[in-house]
Amino acid sequence: MAWIYLVVAGLFEVGWAIGLKYTEGFTKPLPTAFTLLSLVISIGLLGLSLNTLPVGTAYAVWTGIGTVGTVVLGIVLLGDSASALRLACIGLIVAGIVGLKVLSPE
């Protein structure tokens, strides 16, 4: 169950990271509320996953999911660069996340 919490926490991290762009400096109430709610849920689920997962592994996977998801949505929604080298670097992050999962004692 801890891994499920962690993956969902990572997805909510993507939500608040992308949400920050839409708050326009926290001047838009609805995007701001969504962003803050996503942040609270993300941190809460990360905390629950830490009941059984090692902190280093959980934090690295959480930030990795957040990073990869934010970059992908930045490309799709915001027109960020999708150069081959940038995508290769994202692939390395994904490989690290998978490696941490495979090598985790939980």
UniProtKB/TrEMBL annotation:
NCBIfam families per the record?
PRK11431.1
Q: Which family does it belong to?
A: Belongs to the drug/metabolite transporter (DMT) superfamily. Small multidrug resistance (SMR) (TC 2.A.7.1) family. Gdx/SugE subfamily.
Signal sequence bounds? none
Where are its TM segments located?
33-52, 59-78, 84-103
Q: Which SUPFAM superfamilies match?
A: Multidrug resistance efflux transporter EmrE (SSF103481)
Q: Where does it localize?
A: Cell membrane
Gene3D superfamilies membership: 1.10.3730.20
InterPro entries found in the cross-reference section: EmrE-like, Small_drug/metabolite_transptr, Small_multidrug_res
What's the protein name?
Guanidinium exporter
Q: Which organism is it from?
A: Phreatobacter oligotrophus
One GO molecular function term?
transmembrane transporter activity
Its domain of life reads: Bacteria
